[in-house]
Every structure is written in structure tokens, then in C-alpha cells.
Amino acid sequence: MKKIMSVLLLFTLTLCGCQSQSSPLSDKQFCLDTIVQITLYDSQSKDILNHCFDICNEFELIFSATNKKSELYKINHNSHKLQEQTISKDLYQVIKEGLRYSELSNGSFDITIGSISSLWDFQSDDPLLPDQAIIEDNLSNVSYKNIKLSKNKITYLNEDTMIDLGAIAKGYIADKIKDYLLEENVKSALINLGGNVLCVGNKNNEKFTIGLTDPIDTSQSILSLKIDDLSIVTSGTYQRYFELDNKKYHHILNPQTGYCYDNGLSSVTIISNSSLQGDALSTVCFSLGKEKGIELLNTMDNVYGCFIDDHNNISYSDGFKQYVK
């Protein structure tokens, strides 16, 4: 039995361009269950930088499925959850988007995976498989159709259904941090929420160079992208996983089986304007598989995907190659 440490940072960031007169202002902290790094290129305000991390901590107390003090945890575990509950504007918005993408994938991606995802521990030093019977018992609780949403109100139609926003919340938070930076007249920055990368403008009139992690050798990049003012998000089997009896178990779970997807893919990367959209679609497209994922992306405007299989073969949706260096 061997525990494999998760890769906290999906992207190797190689930042290029002319040297600025002052050094970038940067900090990183552990929050949102990952390493968050914020870099400002046209501001030396530590107050602005620190407030970015305050935003992360504030939203963690809304979206966390495991923190007992969070709003999501409280509504998931409310003994009267079959009755209508009032929720915050932010939680309402993220659940609404999560339900939309759950429907878009016809349940291949489902934010009500919480009763299953809570059975898996990908951080344990001595990982164990969840009991199969318990997984099977909980599968009937997983359905986005078990959630009724109206303006800032939610009703669970199954008392054992649990919402998990882990595949979409970081994107929403990254977008909110970018909004804040723009309000503060910061027009050049890099937001990295554990691999959810969001570029604010560019760096010294040059595009950011962002390397996509090689799924087989995670210390290396498999591709370099030239990006400005866009989001880049990857869902990959190498991010959180463990190996047991020579078999790899990763965190992208199939709502139909309760076990991780085994569809030949190692990662899906999405380039989009919105980090929330990229966060959701990276998991949606992974769950759909390469062919259906590419087909979906080719119907959407200004969204592009890169699919890497278990043998490091690379496939693209229409338009992605324009960003490859």
C-alpha cells in the first residue's frame, strides 16, 4: 500500500515579459484546502493583496462541505432540510450554476455527489476503500433533481442528499477576486487557487506563459500556453488520488457508480472567460469523456478544451490551438 501525495499546483507558471521597474507583490497561503497564490504586477498595496486572501476565507465559510461552521455544511445537515431554507446570494448563485451544469451533463457531473464524496478520503496516510455496500446505499441519494431552488431559497427533496461544490466553488471565488482587483484599479495580476489560474490583464504588455502539467511526470509541463485576461482550469487524475493494491483511485467520481471515472482520460483543461465556467466544464467534460466533451465544447462560444489521455496523447476542441505556444 502506498500513499501518493497530491499535486497542489496544477500548473507550472513561467511568467515572461520585460522586467518591471518594481518587483511583483506576491503571497501564498493555505486556504480552500489548497495552496492559494496571488501576484500583483501593477500594485504594491499589501492591503489589497491581503484582502484577496480574506475573500478566500470568507467564501470558505460559505461553500465548504466539511467545515461545520460553513453555510453549506449547515444546510446539508439541517434536520429540517425537507423544508424550505433561505440561503445567501453567493450560495444560491453557485448552487444554481452547479445545477445547470449537472443538467447539461445529464447527471454525469452532479453537485449532489456529497453523500458519496464524503466516503472517500484522498488525504489519509493510510487510505482505505469505502465499503461497497455503503456506496451502493448512497447512490440513490445522488441526483440534482433532488434540489429545488427558488430566489435565495432551497428545498431538499431527499433528506439524505448532500451538495458538494468542490468542482465549481473555486472558480466562483477566483472570479470574485478578479472583480475586486479591477475595482481597486489592479489591471495586471495572476490568481492561482491551487491550479485554478485566472489572469487579470497581461504582464508588462506581454501574455502570461502558463505550462500545463504533464500527467505522467507532474514535475514537467506538457504544453505551454500564451494567455491574457482568461481563465485556465484543469481537472486531472493526478491532483488528488491514492494507490491501493496497484490500482489508482482519483477524486473525480462517477455519480452513477460512486467510484472514480475510468474513461482513459488523465486531464481536461478549459480556457474560458469565467473561472466558474472553466471549473465546472473541466469536470463536466472529463465525466463525459473525450468525444462527447469535445462535441459539447464545439457548440459553445469562447470556450476551449484540451484533453490528455492515459498515454499522454493530446486532443483539442476547436480553437484551443490558438493559445498553444
Kindly identify the CATH topology.
Answer: T-fold
Biggest sheet layout: 8 strands, antiparallel
Whole-angstrom Rg: 19 Å
Overall average residue pLDDT: 93
The first-level CATH class name = Alpha Beta
How much of the residues is beta strand, in percent? 25-35%
Question: Secondary-structure element sequence?
Answer: EEEHHEHHHEEHEEEEEEEEHHEE
Strand numbers in spatial order across the main sheet? 2-3-7-8-11-14-15-16
> What's the β-strand tally?
16
CATH superfamily label: ApbE-like domains
Helix/strand/pairing category: alpha+beta
In one word, what is the shape?
Answer: globular
Residues in helix, %: 25-40%
Helix count? Answer: 8
Uncertain runs = 1-20
What report would you give on this structure?
The chain has an 8-stranded antiparallel β-sheet with strand order 2-3-7-8-11-14-15-16. It has a 3-stranded antiparallel β-sheet with strand order 1-9-10, with no helix packed on it. 42% of the residues are buried. Mean pLDDT is 93; it is low at 1-20. Strand 5 (147-150) and strand 6 form a beta hairpin. Helix content is 27%, strand content 25%. Helix 7 (275-288) runs antiparallel to helix 8. With 325 residues, it is an alpha+beta fold. The chain has one domain: ApbE-like domains (T-fold, Roll), CATH 3.10.520. It has 8 helices and 16 strands.
